[in-house]
Amino acid sequence: MIVSVLKLLVQIMLILIIAPFFTGVIKKLKSKFQHKIGLSVFQPYYNLIKLCKKDLVVSSVTSWIYNVAPYIYFMTSLFAVLCLPVVHQLIGPAYFTDLLVIVYLLVAGRIFMALAGLDTGSAFGGMGSSREMLVSALVEPALFVIIITVSSRTGIASTNVSSIYEYTLSHTEAAFSPINLLLFASMLMILIAESSRIPVDDPSTHLELTMVHEAMVLEYSGRHLAFIEMGTHIKQLVFMTFMANILIPIGFNIENIFIGLGIYILKILAITVLVALVEINTVKLRLYSIPNFAAIAFIISVLGFLTCFILK
Amino acid sequence: MTANNLTICFSICLVVYFIGALSSLFTFSSPRVSNKLSNSCAVAASGFLSILMILKLLFAEKISLSPNFTNNIPFFSLSFNIDNLSAFFILIISIVTFVVSLFSYTYMSHYFFKRNISIFGFLYNLFVLSMILLVSSSNLLLFLFFWELMSLISYFLVNYENEKKEVQKASRIYIIMTYAGTAFITAAFGLIAYCTKSFSFEFSAISNSSIPTGYANLIYVFLLIGFGTKAGLIPMHVWLPYAHPVAPGNISALMSGVMIKMSVYGILRAVLDFLPENPMWWGTLTLIAGVVSAVFGVVYSVASTINIKRLLAYSSIENMGLIFSGIGMLLIARTTDNSFLIALAMTAVLLHTINHAVFKSLLFMGAGAIQYSAHTKNMEKLGGLIKKMPVASLFIFIGCLTISAVPPFSGFISEYIIFQTVINSIIWFSSNSPLIILFITAAAALSMTGALVAFCFVKMYGISFLGMPRSVEAESVKEPGKPMLIALGISSFLCVALGVFSKYVIGLIDNISNELMNLRLLSTDWSLTKFAHYPVNNGKLDISIGLLSAFIVLLSGIILLLVMFIRKHTNVERYNTWDCGYTRLNPKIQYSATGFSKSIRIILRGIFKPNRNLTVTEGYAPYNIKKGTYTMSTEKVIEKYLYAPFIKFIISFSKKFRYKIQTGSIHIYLLYFFTILILMLLYYSFMG
């Protein structure tokens, strides 16, 4: 019991320390690709500290939902990544580490953020909430197909992370199998949609025509905003961890925890390079082209599923 | 307590309902007394009955409840038998009736001296009574009788505000659809009775006789159509979005929470008792019907509603779709001998049935509370209610989270088990490719449904409870009375409890599967490791949801400490929402319910065929707009392309043949008699 609590604590500390780093890396890479110097990779940390020190401006229209939403959003993201250990040695108690729990907790965080967007009574917030809920609903089928595939191929029909990790540990050679590659491609598209990146959303814009996530949190300031940003960093890491540990399990079964962690971070860095490349080479889609984007993700994931079950 | 005593207790509860009905009728001179009497009787009887039914489900082997009344009518016996399945449904009825009756104490007060309260109380109690007797009857004729009674009384209750045009239209559609459904059920029951080759309509006699496959297929299709009409499966759903919004709040809570669940009972009873073997296609048909209903229900509920109760009605269609897809998977699982899969599907069906009953009645009562205090059901006129009625808003918020399947509330656990059923079926049928493709499509559709439900309830809660009040009515809202709040509170507590303690509910459901099919989820011979990850108690590895919620609480505590640490040197300033420097913000600038769901309408324009009309009167210059009107409408595709042509055909057919068959001449009518007589004689001389 004490060991598993310790594991959870280690996991929490690790996540809190490394999550903003990868957002910084993506920004830096984008700048490099555009031949700019770019901000330091540690800029997200400076931003968080700055925001925590600042005073808050809270709209007088809002209710308690607005005030708790950032913390709930942060908590659900943190909980989700807790269920998904970064290295296999950190697998905690199997009682609730379930992929479906992760998905529905992320939904909970999103519900709170969308309600907070509506709570301010401004048109921006409502628009952002509506679009955010739409985008997440559109990519949900692809996400579920991926989850069903990885959990049903274990042979014991379990969505539990520890049994999926167990299966992955004994199948690390599957990293370049067609199933994993298809699922990886689909998951990359989901990652882009869920962490509000180009081509689905533009994280650096403040123009009402293109904003999705930013419009929803437009009214937030100070530590509220810090928690939301941290939540977004962590949420991005949830999807990246899923990809790194389950879909490309190269070196996942290494016994030494520090080498394992190093390999994990290298894999995440590789994924950030992919994300940055996608961001540089595409333009933001029209809102009503996002269904096509989601449909492609869905079809790729279904192909992965069919490869796993019918063409085996 | 012996079985006999229990039977007496059960009968006493029924009598109390009856007393409630009669006393309400006889105190017509004072609506207050009549309201109090009828609701007190209902509260007392249903509270007692739910405890009784829990006892019955817990100690299933020891207790038998079968009240029999002797009578002298040939071929018709008043025989009742309460097995575990009936007990489970009586439990659902009693829980929902308990909270809804509490709610009615205050809710009915806005009808005082405007409408006949005593008739309402009379019908209300009889309605509940008819449903209880429906699930306890062990005779086809009795079942049909109470089914009819339930439908008829609910028609009167829907038609309560009968001077309004929309109410008349809605209740007319309801009664037509419900009778169309009953016709199919009657036909199916007739076929069942025909196959048993006896005049005994007892359930036990039917389950002992075997029904030939051809007839069984026909019976099942009839039952699916008949019960599907009551459940609101698409395309038989048309009555639901009309009837629920116009019925009084407590009645829609009862109808959506309980009455439409009677179809689940009916189909389970028929399938498990009378038709013990089924081909695969029954299951796939039901699964497809369920999934289609789920998807279309939620899509309509998101995109085409501004009336809260209509939104909830469409959402009921969606949830019944989920339950029916569970039944589909149960039937598919039954073609194999995998008892684990059957038990899992059974658990999914019954767990979602009880959870939906609780949270949907909570949400309908919430809508009733809004209507009671704001006098409107239109979301575009609400807003900011969370500040005017904080307690009720909190309870309704819990309902919204539950229906969006947020852990650890009860909606999550049933959705979780439905997905587990899908995944297990995929593994079990992994060699059957078409079936796998069906399952993965179903899973994808159901997952999208889940996300859209969240969208839908963000819309409902965000528009009507948050932001600024959009009308004078919304500004003058006050917290509803204590009984209403208590009712909402109990329901939302149940939403949490049924989630956190779901393993006990699953235990109760296990007793049902054990009695009907001789299998259990808890002790199938699957190995522990395979079993360990399901949130069910197997004695070794315990349920996850309790620990999950404990961890959520722990993590919240840590975050709270963190915030306390961070907030030391900062101030909070209250200021207006940012208005882009434009002008003072007003409620009309807020996002509306129509606008919130516009993206869905545009993406699914093939289904909705949205139609908008913008007229602008310009002032002294272009862009100086004096007046503008915007109207938006969507098409009801199923009504327009399925029902309307059919109705048109019937009307034109009857118009054409009205004078050809019914000429008004008595000679022709005599000729009809004669022809029929000859035909019948011929039939019997050749066929009989």
UniProtKB/TrEMBL annotation, chain A:
The chain crosses the membrane at residues 6-26, 64-87, 99-121, 133-154, 174-193, 233-252, 258-278, 290-311. Its main location: membrane. This is Formate hydrogenlyase subunit 4. GO terms for cellular component: plasma membrane. It is found in: Membrane. It comes from the Bacteria. It comes from Ruminiclostridium sufflavum DSM 19573. The keyword Aminoacyl-tRNA synthetase does not apply. GO terms for molecular function: lyase activity. Keywords: Lyase, Membrane, Transmembrane, Transmembrane helix. It is a multi-pass membrane protein. InterPro entries: ComplexI_Subunit1, NADH_UbQ_OxRdtase_su1/FPO. PANTHER family: FORMATE HYDROGENLYASE SUBUNIT 4 (PTHR43359), FORMATE HYDROGENLYASE SUBUNIT 4-RELATED (PTHR43359:SF1).
Automatic annotation (TrEMBL), chain B:
GO terms for biological process: ATP synthesis coupled electron transport. Residues 76-110 form the NADH-Ubiquinone oxidoreductase (complex I) chain 5 N-terminal domain. GO terms for molecular function: NADH dehydrogenase (ubiquinone) activity; oxidoreductase activity. InterPro entries: ComplexI-like_HydComp, NADH_UbQ_OxRdtase, ND/Mrp_TM, Proton_antipo_N. The keyword Transmembrane applies. It is found in: Cell membrane; Membrane. Signal peptide: none annotated. Residues 137-429 form the NADH:quinone oxidoreductase/Mrp antiporter transmembrane domain. Pfam families: Proton_antipo_M (PF00361), Proton_antipo_N (PF00662). It is a multi-pass membrane protein. GO terms for cellular component: plasma membrane. Belongs to the CPA3 antiporters (TC 2.A.63) subunit A family. This is Hydrogenase-4 component B. The lineage of its organism: Bacteria, Bacillati, Bacillota, Clostridia, Eubacteriales.
